Amino acid sequence: MNTRRYNRTLRGAAGVALAAFGIAALPQLASANGEVKIEANKVVTITQGHYPKTTQAVQLSRTVSYADLDLSTSAGANEFQSRIQGTAEQVCDQLRAFAPAGSAGAEMNERATCVKGAVDAAMDRARLVVASAQKAKQP
């Protein structure tokens, strides 16, 4: 298989797989309908024989709803954080399944880094949403 056809095939397969997972290139935002976007990113290196390596950025995302939570309470804020953590783990697992790192140790390290990055980015926005809810409830 020549390099051009291989790259085209890879891009096509990656595009289909990523579309299925809900890829997005937007930053984490809280929407008006009570959702925060969780995103996970990975740079994939592809080697085909003696041809030069190519890299491609892969990004998956999902939204986490908080519309049903009372974020002005500790219980609501904790549930929101739990949802963010769980969704980040799911997205990073999907990303890892799409492009495995190789060794078991590298897989664990890469997953932990992915989850931490996705949670940290989403929690920046989530903290603002929670603070706004708590401020709105103050007398």
Element layout with pairings:
Elements lengths: L2 H18 L14 E12 L7 E12 L8 H25 L5 H34 L2
Antiparallel strand pairs: 1-2
Helix pairs in contact: 2-3
What does this structure look like?
- The structure is a single chain.
- The chain contains three helices and two strands; from the N terminus they run αββαα.
- Strands 1-2 form a two-stranded antiparallel sheet.
- The longest helix has 34 residues, at 104-137.
- A hairpin with a 7-residue loop joins β1 and β2 (54-65).
- It has one domain (3-137).
- The protein is an alpha+beta fold and 139 residues long.
- It is 55% helix and 17% strand.
- The radius of gyration is 18 Å and the shape is elongated.
- α2 packs antiparallel against α3.
- The termini are far apart.
